[in-house]
Design a protein that fits this description.
- The protein is α+β, with helices and mostly antiparallel strands and about 240 residues long.
- The chain has two domains: about 30-105, no CATH class; about 110-235, Herpes Virus-1.
- Helix content is about 40%, strand content about 15%.
- The chain has helices at about 25-65, 95-105, 135-150, 160-165, 210-220, 230-235, and strands spanning about 70, 80, 85, 85-90, 110-115, 120-125, 190, 205-210.
- A two-stranded antiparallel sheet has the order 1-2.
- A hairpin with a 2-residue loop joins strand 3 and strand 4.
- The N and C termini lie far apart (about 125 Å).
- The mean pLDDT is about 75.
Length: about 240
């Protein structure tokens, strides 16, 4: 007959396990065993951390041994160029690298005319066609309003409209100031003959030159009922 020896406590090894006990003989041994496991895991984490720190230090020492003497391409300061994943660094610091990139961008400049107010401006963005965000918002707003209402939309160049009208305001009949820009009252703007809110198109056939003041004063009203809009009444 085989005699089976009772299973003893994992921690103290003295008391046998009874009933549902599978590892520890008492609550005290269970708590002490959990503390021991936590301490062992903490020691393992500290060991892994020390290994990572050692490897990092060795990598730095290797880069320092491979470093070469160079001069910064931006400020000309002599420095030790370290070996990186893409080769040796060309700048002594991150700030010099960013400044060099910004200088390259600023060196590429383009002289343009605003697609809305025809004001000359200089930009380093090849795709920019408006002088300011105000002109950009107004141009896109006009086209957006026309699209929402389902009218015909055409890319209208204000400069072509101004030249075709001889820079004359179609509402008051006076010449617009070619050098003025919005919000100058005499600044030239494009005005829709039939307002977009009333079903007008955003096209060359439906726009005329108007002073900024006259354009804002008219709003969406019919110019034939305005006493001051002499030229528009004559054209009607």
């Amino acid at each position: 007959m085989t005699i089976v020896s009772p299973q003893l406590c994992t921690l103290c090894g003295l008391n046998p396990l009874t009933g549902r006990q599978t590892k520890y003989c008492s609550k005290t041994c269970e708590m002490r065993g959990a503390d021991a496991i936590r301490q062992s895991r903490g020691g393992q984490a500290a060991y892994r951390k020390s290994i990572r720190a050692t490897l990092t230090q060795k990598a730095r020492e290797y880069r320092d041994r491979k470093a070469v003497d160079r001069r910064c391409r931006h400020c000309g300061t002599a420095f030790k160029a370290r070996l990186t994943g893409t080769g040796y660094s060309s700048y002594c610091s991150m700030s010099c690298s960013k400044r060099k990139v910004s200088l390259k961008k600023s060196a590429m400049s383009y002289l343009r005319e605003c697609a809305r107010c025809a004001t000359p401006f200089v930009t380093n963005r090849w795709h920019q066609i408006f002088c300011t965000s105000v002109c950009s918002g107004r141009a896109h707003g006009s086209r957006r309003d026309a699209r929402i209402r389902g009218q015909f939309v055409e890319h209208v160049s204000p400069d072509l409209v101004f030249k075709a009208d001889g820079w004359m305001c179609w509402l008051c009949g006076e010449e617009a100031d070619r050098t003025a820009v919005v919000p100058d009252p005499k600044a030239p703007t494009i005005d829709h003959l039939t307002p977009l809110s009333q079903g007008g198109e955003h096209s060359y056939a439906n726009v005329r030159t108007a002073h900024f003041y006259c354009n804002a004063r008219r709003g969406a009203r019919d110019p034939r009922v305005l006493e001051w809009a002499v030229e528009a009444s004559r054209a009607a």
